[in-house]
Amino acid sequence: MINRHKTKVLISASIILSLLILAGAASVNYTSTEEKYSNPVLVETIKPKAHKGIVTPFVVEFGIGDPTVISHDGKYYLYPTGDQYSYYVYISSDLINWKKGPKVFTSAESGAWAPDVFYNPDDKKFYLYYTVNRKIGVAVADRPDGTFKDLNPLIDNAIDAHMFLDNGRYYLYYATYPGFRIYVQPMESPVKKKEEPIEIISPTKAWEKKRAAITEAPWMLKHNDTYYLLYSGGGADSQDYAIGYATSKHPTGPFTKYKANPIIKKGAGIFGPGHASVTKDGKGKMWMVYHQQNDETIGWNRIICINPLWFDDNGVLHGKASRAIAQTAPVVEK
Predict the structure, then answer these.
(1) 192 CB contacts (<8 Å, ≥6 apart)?
(2) What is the C-alpha radius of gyration for the chain, rounded to an integer number of angstroms?
(3) pLDDT tens digit string along 83-137?
(4) Average pLDDT over residues 224-240
């Protein structure tokens, strides 16, 4: 005799299992969060570069630093300070394993530092904001690993550009040089200024003055209608370089520095963490990509590292640097 109730249950269970399998096949797969990594994730030593018969005089050799990272079509693209005359792109699918890509920009002058690359969803082009000889300019390309065509200079006596798009409006953040005060320049487009720049951060705290009075390397985040401006202070060539942040209800300020700054600093084998950019992994978790000094020596022997950033329930931004210690890896799409 057939047990009709049991048969119905078995059929229903089979249908549910089939639907779950089909749903799983249609969903995005991710790597296990149990995968591990340890810092640094990228190390490259640059030797002095001869350019038109001239060798950069003030360094013997140095490590790449000042990284900007963007994500596009399932890959990450990292652009650091390199040989003082050009920028290369480094490409990764997981933020951990990086492959050096092509040269994307070459300058006729020395002092090519701290590039920032911005993808503009309006025209689907990539904009490189370069610092060369303490001046900021902009170049454009159709691909993140393409050759960027120089368009025009933007700001004199400035370094460390960072473009931020919010509600259809463009804002270019930068640090003055000399002075190391952070300004925001409202922009009509990625290449055209409008209105006057506004000073938003200056070196006023003790940690920002450890080696010299410096606030630089701006990077903007937005969380729950609050703007978080990451910045670095204390001297990029020293172990006291560190990262803090300030908040505002508007991208042009006024900004209030977090009272417990710096949130990322030296200690436990960590030297000079700074100049952070931020991206997200496949699950939406924030990761800062930044450099550390290789040791406590004053200089430019830097290494590229990654670590998580997160907001607590009170809107406080947290982060912690690590070095040579196994950490849970970013989650990436497969």
Answers:
(1) none
(2) 23
(3) 999 999 999 999 999 999 999 999 989 999 999 999 999 999 999 999 999 999 9
(4) 97
| Contact present, 37 and 96 (Cβ < 8 Å) | yes
How far is 133 from 110, CA to CA, in rounded Å?
Answer: 6
> Is this structure's pTM higher than 0.85?
yes
For 254, other C-beta atoms within 10 Å of its C-beta total: 11
**CB-CB contact of 307 with 289 (8 Å):** no
What's the order of all strands across the beta sheet hosting 242-248? 215-223, 226-233, 242-248, 256-257
- Going from N- to C-terminal start, the domains of the chain cover 31-328
Cα 305 to Cα 69: distance, rounded to the nearest angstrom: 12
d(CA 63, CA 18): 53
Cβ within 8 Å of residue 37, ≥6 positions away? 96, 306, 326, 327, 329
Would you tell me how many other CB atoms lie within 10 Å of the CB of residue 51?
A: 17
Q: How far apart are CA 138 and CA 86, in angstroms?
A: 14
- Tokens standing for 25? 């096949």
Both tokens of 259, joined, read 């009272």
Contact between residue 182 and residue 192 where contact means Cβ atoms under 8 Å apart: no
For residue 268, which phi and psi values (nearest 5 degrees)? Answer: 55, 50
Residues contacting residue 88 through CB under 8 Å, at least 6 positions apart: 79, 80, 82, 100, 101, 102, 103, 104
CATH code, residues 31-328: 2.115.10.20
* 265: region left, alpha or beta (phi > 0 left; psi from -120 to 50 alpha): beta
Burial class (CB in 10 A: 0-12, 13-18, 19+), 299: middle
Look up residue 318 and give its two tokens: 């947290």
The H or E element containing residue 179 is none
* Cα 47 from Cα 55, distance rounded (Å): 10
Tell me the two tokens of residue 163.
């473009």
How far, in Å, CA of 43 to CA of 173, rounded? 27
For residue 74, give the H/E element and its range.
none
- Enter the tokens of residue 101: 């890509």
pLDDT in tens, 2-16: 344 333 433 344 433
